[in-house]
Specification:
The structure holds two protein chains of two kinds.
Chain A: H1 2-23, E1 35-41, H2 47-61, E2 66-72, H3 74-86, E3 93-96, H4 100-104, H5 111-114, H6 117-122, H7 125-130, E4 132-133, E5 136-137, E6 140-145, E7 148-152, H8 153-159, H9 168-179, E8 186-188, H10 197-206, H11 223-237, H12 250-258, E9 262-267, H13 269-278, E10 284-287, E11 298-307, H14 315-325, H15 328-338, H16 345-350, H17 358-363, E12 367-369, H18 377-387, H19 397-409
Helix pairs in contact in A: 2-15, 8-9, 10-11, 18-19
Chain B: H1 13-52, E1 55-57, E2 63-66, H2 70-77, H3 81-111, H4 117-129, H5 132-142, H6 149-156, H7 170-197, H8 202-210, H9 215-243, H10 247-253, H11 264-273, H12 278-303
Antiparallel strand pairs in B: 1-2
Helix pairs in contact in B: 2-12, 3-7, 3-9, 4-7, 5-10, 7-9, 7-10, 8-9, 11-12
Classes of the chains: A alpha/beta, B mainly alpha.
């Protein structure tokens, strides 16, 4: 009987230990007030080394604070964060696009608690507003990106298009002319695959004065949005776009543009570097994104840092580290190396002379953002990514927007 | 098959039971690693899955309390579910059936003696040795309409005028995925059946020939009955594998909008990654588990593959 008890005790202990380490928290290493866990997505192949350099410099200057870096791919980071929160092991600092879901569940410190007043005051107003819910700032805008249209000047010349289009009708016309060249050349690149369908769609709906929200609720199927999506479908049906836009992801489609096979695409700041690396002989120029009536507009996107309310009082350590990250030299180097746009006033001043991003900085004042402070936006965005491309597979715009609206309503 | 009964002294029932319990206790220290594994790796996650499927979990992972059966209601309200279930049935039945037929032919061929048989047998293993994601990715890029080599080949030999987006529309992409699934399932199935073929006694086949049976008749009446257990194992394992297969469909149909090319397994991932509904995904996982149990139950019941002839 003794042996019986002993072996069962062994089983029970082994079982408890195994479940314990895999489940009950696992953040034992960061419970003291001076160790910060820091979870970031990988923006480029250099992101890891860049953060490691910043953290090494920081720890050399502040030996009392210890920062533990974890890098995840954009494909995985949402799953990783959710799993960590579910098991009470949220990171102390997270770098991700949207913060509103975390704020809605009361998981975040307000920005004022974790950075100094000077750092808060340094954010450009539009980004600070975009990082606030009901006047309380939760996100710390880290990087920004804006879009502008790139067009292949060689294809434009061959097709007899003299100036970049400003309105939708001119865009339709120019795209048809370029597509008329044949030989596997397409007019306008429309990436409605799951990678970033919400960005392409927003460019069109915002360009029609539409909006995804009326201030409180999500309004995907509002009339202005429907009109814009109907025009997108017209572009597809008239073969002014590449074939099967519904299944085209942005990154591979930009590669086709870089190969010189697409007349016009909406591009991001890092596209400049990709062209220089992959096909430096490509002849292209940039122009503002065409809108319905020619009013300038761009889609702005900001990614944020945010601090989670975890056990133990880490506010001082958080403040020390985050103020260091947003100090002008450190911050400018980070944004500059990754090729994005700065969100701080000092960063913008420091990078004003950089030619690669000049055309993007120029359109930034007209930037419109996703309604990412709305807690329903994450679900809306996911539904757009998986469903919007159906307009390229024969489904009616109204039906698609209604389907997304239904998902947004939950 | 003979059974080997040990001679046992007839004893009162109580004593026999006590003996059995004592044996079990004595065996426990040796069983405990396996039991621990089963509890922590299988039972605990399955229980947690069931638990999550009845919770209201926020999109960022905070448990907001019990949801009863609301998640199942959300799931069954989904307009996409009908098509997805149909796709799943087509996917499992189609892939397993085609795999089985091709494998039976291949195994028959590999069972014959011919020069270089060893090399051909090795070649059949290749799709098995390669990672499934890699194989699917090779097909995905090969079939790309702009720069895929397979599309380029079809254009060069004049079958197509320009590249066709095989992986850009639900139906062609789903068919391509099925073809790839058959391709990667062939090695295991072929080798299982080949092993079965080695068990067919030569004398019986020769006797059948002497009695005047043709090759079709011999295969049907002599070979197939011997193959029955091998085929049963191959089909069972393939059903489970194919039903739960994610990487091929994710790679080849992942960029297609809507749910027209999804099976229940890929739909689970869309619920998690795009809709951020971990609780609905859990409910669908539970349903998925019940379906696969039911399918196997029906298969074992109706086909009775394990019965002795």
């Amino acid at each position: 009987m003794k042996r019986f008890l002993r072996s069962w005790a062994a089983v029970a202990v082994a079982g408890l230990t195994l479940t314990g380490c895999g489940f009950g928290g696992g953040d034992g290493q960061s419970e003291d007030g001076s160790t910060l866990s820091f979870l970031v997505p990988s923006y480029s192949d250099g992101t890891k080394a860049l953060w490691e350099g910043i953290i090494a410099d920081f720890e050399a200057a502040h030996p009392d604070v210890n920062v533990e870096l974890e890098i995840q791919s954009w494909d995985n980071i949402n799953d990783v964060v959710r799993t960590k929160i579910q098991s009470n092991a949220a990171p102390d600092i997270l770098n991700i696009d949207a913060f509103s879901g975390f704020a809605a569940d009361d998981l975040l410190y307000p920005a004022g608690d974790v950075v100094s007043a000077n750092t808060v005051a340094d954010f450009q107003q539009s980004f600070a507003d975009n990082a606030s819910i009901d006047g309380t700032m939760y996100g710390l805008p880290l990087i920004a990106s804006a879009r502008t249209m790139f067009y292949n000047t060689e294809l434009f010349e061959r097709a007899g298009v003299t100036a970049p289009p400003k309105t939708w009708d001119q865009l339709h016309d120019a795209a048809k002319k370029v597509a008329g060249l044949g030989d596997g050349v397409y007019g306008y690149g429309m990436p409605l695959g799951s990678e970033e369908a919400q960005a392409e769609t927003s460019i069109w709906t915002f360009g029609n004065g539409g909006s995804w929200t009326n201030g409180s609720t999500i309004t995907v199927n509002a009339p202005a949005n429907l009109e814009a999506v109907t025009f997108m479908k017209r572009m597809i049906d008239d073969k002014a776009t590449q074939p099967d836009p519904g299944a085209s992801d942005r990154t591979p489609m930009l590669d086709v543009f870089i190969q010189g096979k697409i007349g016009m695409v909406v591009a991001l700041p890092p596209t400049v570097g990709q062209i220089a690396e992959k096909n430096p002989s490509l002849k292209y120029a940039s122009a503002p994104i065409p809108t319905k009536d020619g009013q300038p507009m761009t889609l702005g996107v900001a990614d944020h840092l945010m601090a989670f309310k975890n056990e133990g009082d880490k506010k001082e350590a958080l403040k020390t580290f985050l103020d260091y990250v947003f100090s002008a030299p450190v911050y400018t180097k980070f944004v500059d190396t990754e090729g994005f746009l700065p969100t701080t006033r000092t960063g913008a001043a420091a990078l004003a002379g950089k030619t690669e991003i000049a055309s993007f900085l120029e359109v930034l004042p007209n930037a419109r953002f996703y309604p990412s402070t709305n807690p329903q936006w994450a679900a809306t965005q996911g539904a757009m990514q998986s469903l919007m491309g159906q307009i390229g597979q024969g489904k009616a715009p109204r039906a698609v927007l209604d389907e997304i609206q239904a998902k947004a309503n939950g | 098959m003979t059974t080997n009964h040990r001679m046992e002294v007839p004893a009162p029932a109580i004593s026999a039971r006590r003996q059995a319990r004592r044996d079990l206790v004595a065996a426990l220290p040796w069983l405990s690693p396996a039991l621990t594994l089963i509890v922590t790796i299988v039972l605990f996650p399955a229980g947690y899955l069931l638990w999550t499927s009845t919770r209201d979990v926020s999109p960022v992972g905070v448990d907001r309390g019990s949801a009863g059966f609301d998640n199942y209601a959300t799931l069954f309200d989904s307009p996409a579910l009908g098509r997805v279930l149909l796709n799943t049935a087509i996917w499992v039945v189609g892939v397993v059936l085609v795999t089985l037929l091709v494998s039976m032919a291949l195994a028959q061929f590999l069972d014959k003696a011919f020069p270089g048989r060893r090399l051909v047998r090795l070649a059949v293993i290749v799709p098995w040795a390669a990672s499934v994601v890699m194989t699917a990715t090779v097909f995905y890029y090969g079939l790309d309409p702009y720069y895929g080599v397979m599309n380029q080949f079809l254009v060069d030999v004049g079958i197509l005028d320009t590249g066709f987006g095989f992986t850009r529309q639900p139906v062609p992409a789903f068919l391509v995925a099925m073809a790839v699934a058959v391709f990667v399932s062939l090695p295991f199935t072929t080798y299982t059946i080949l092993a079965g073929l080695q068990m067919v006694p030569r004398e019986v086949v020769e006797a059948a020939a002497v009695d005047g049976a043709g090759s079709v008749r011999t295969y049907w009446s002599v070979v197939l009955p011997v193959l029955r257990p091998a085929i049963a194992v191959a089909v069972l394992i393939n059903i489970i594998n194919v039903f739960n297969s994610l990487p091929i469909l994710r790679t080849l149909t992942g960029s297609i909008p809507g749910y027209d090319a999804d099976t229940t397994t890929t739909l689970i991932f869309k619920y998690i990654q795009q809709d951020r509904q971990i609780e609905t995904a859990s409910a669908l996982s539970v349903v998925n588990f019940v379906i696969v149990l039911a399918v196997i139950g029906i298969y074992l019941r109706v086909v009775r593959p394990m019965r002795d002839e």
